[in-house]
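Quick one before lunch.
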Amino acid sequence: MKIVFATNNKHKVKEIKDLLPSGIQVMTLDEIGCNEEIEETAATLEGNAKIKSDHVKEEYGYDCFADDTGLEVEVLEGAPGVYSARYAGENATFEENVNKLLDALEGQSNRKARFRTVISLNINGEQQYFEGVCNGEIELSAKGSQGFGYDPVFKPDGYDQTFAEMDLSTKGRISHRGRAVQKLVEFLKKKA
Ligand code: IMP
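Model of the inosinic acid complex:
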């Protein structure tokens, strides 16, 4: 079985290749010659993931899956959510986004947050979604240097380290994306 993962993020591709049986071949956007920017214009994670998987199916003919992730903070009513990558502006750095979040939570005692990943799969004309959630809280300041994005300020429930202080395999096991990917893998194994 050949399937496209609508990303060029090498870390994400490795993570999923390690989990899939060898009979399922995963290709990236680069590998199918898809170099155009796929605009994520939806207001939900589900919508943005579907835009990407549909684009590949419609323009290139391959079965495809795509992911979208957001950090949802309780007292901010789910913000930054689907806008997590551009919370502090269109081309914001991870550090700018983290600083804006820490400012928004200044003086707040409720620091509950969750990461949520949605994977959209477009296969044999069928639409499927897989969700992975990781609950935790936002620290008072950044800690650790691993990972990316909001990792330095996100401490998952049940752990006393932030994602940025953990090794990648621990994060992969408990993270939002890891959980969504595990559900996708179980589904694909039944199809292969
Ligand atoms: P994407 O949908 O995977 O591109 O994620 C959108 C944004 O959410 C990223 O730009 C990051 O700011 C944030 N994000 C996604 N996954 C993670 C994660 O595992 N740790 C920290 N931040 C993340």
